[in-house]
Amino acid sequence: MKKMLSGIKPSGRLTLGNYIGAIRKFVEYQDEYELYVFIANLHAITVAQDKAELKKNTKDLIALYLACGLDPKKVTIFLQSDVHEHAELGWIMTCNSYMGELQRMTQYKDKTAKGETGITAGLFTYPSLMAADILLYDADYVPVGIDQKQHVELTRNLAERFNNRYGETFVIPEPVVAKVGAKIYSLQNPTKKMSKSEENPKGTIDLLDEPSLARKKVMSAVTDSLGIIQYDPENQPGISNLLTILSSLNGESIESIVNRYEGKGYGEFKKEVGQQVFDFLTDLQKRYNEIIASGMAEQVIKEGNEKASFIARKKLSKVKRKIGFEVF
Ligand code: AQP
């Protein structure tokens, strides 16, 4: 079975975007691949995190992975900071990365271009850590959004560089880029990605939002004055975003939804999307509450950490031998 790895940062409350764009896919992938899914808390601290919130978000992320359908019998779920080989190989990868290639990574480039201050060195070097995350497990595939594709390209370059210099060590991973339509946008600014760290809570549906509040957010989503329900992201980003949300949650094609709403108004359409979101969150949160109450999350992480550590330890000791760290 081919191996696949992915992770999510506990950098805020998980959104419907994280579910539709990532977790929902992990649930599909767990049957096709030997899947490793981690909580990327080393990546989360590349920007400042409040201690209490980080702890809560981490716990919630584990419980939500499970509530969304990840099955610990099929997938290894672990906490990145508990598998210290990530930090260690991350450093080795940093020492194999050139300043120029890291400077070309969009996240860093965008932030510096905007003149943001307080950019940490960690934010600059995190693509090297991401390479370590992937290479430790010999992952064949890494599911990424289009904006993250360049990080997998960097990982490939670093792995090839290392293999050339020290001999065959790492599997060269391939990015799996999701099909168009998987990206969910802010309900208040539908040209901007729905994000955990979004400051305007009206634009974001959090997976732990009160379902009736989430329905209200859908009802007040920004649309347009054209009055036609059709998929046209350029001219009708708000309606197109709601179409993507509905289609992702109810499994109906966008085309079929558009046909059903021919000649109908936005109010009726939003009502259906709102109800779908309400029902989805109600079911999800029921499972989440049961998982939290059962203490299952802790057990899953304990076992996942052990399994991941075993693999990572073996890989790292091979790397250290190749470099010349193991002297006796
Ligand atoms: N709006 C979205 N639509 C589709 N997919 C999304 N993802 C995030 N937002 C959307 C996917 O969820 C995973 C989260 O990965 P991450 O936490 O490492 O990073 P991110 O992409 O930076 O996520 P956020 O929610 O935007 O977090 P912040 O605000 O902290 O930066 C990825 O697979 C991503 O594609």
UniProtKB/TrEMBL annotation:
The keyword ATP-binding applies. PROSITE patterns: AA_TRNA_LIGASE_I. Its main location: cytoplasm. It is found in: Cytoplasm. The keyword Ribonucleoprotein does not apply. A motif ('KMSKS' region) lies at residues 193-197. One of its GO terms (molecular function) is tryptophan-tRNA ligase activity. A motif ('HIGH' region) lies at residues 10-18. ATP binds at residues 9-11, 17-18, 145-147, 184, 193-197. GO terms for biological process: tryptophanyl-tRNA aminoacylation. Keywords: Aminoacyl-tRNA synthetase, ATP-binding, Cytoplasm, Ligase, Nucleotide-binding, Protein biosynthesis. It comes from the Bacteria. GO terms for cellular component: cytosol. Its EC number is 6.1.1.2. L-tryptophan binds at residue 133. It catalyses: tRNA(Trp) + L-tryptophan + ATP = L-tryptophyl-tRNA(Trp) + AMP + diphosphate + H(+). Belongs to the class-I aminoacyl-tRNA synthetase family. Catalyzes the attachment of tryptophan to tRNA(Trp). Homodimer. This is Tryptophan--tRNA ligase. The lineage of its organism: Bacteria, Bacillati, Bacillota, Erysipelotrichia, Erysipelotrichales.
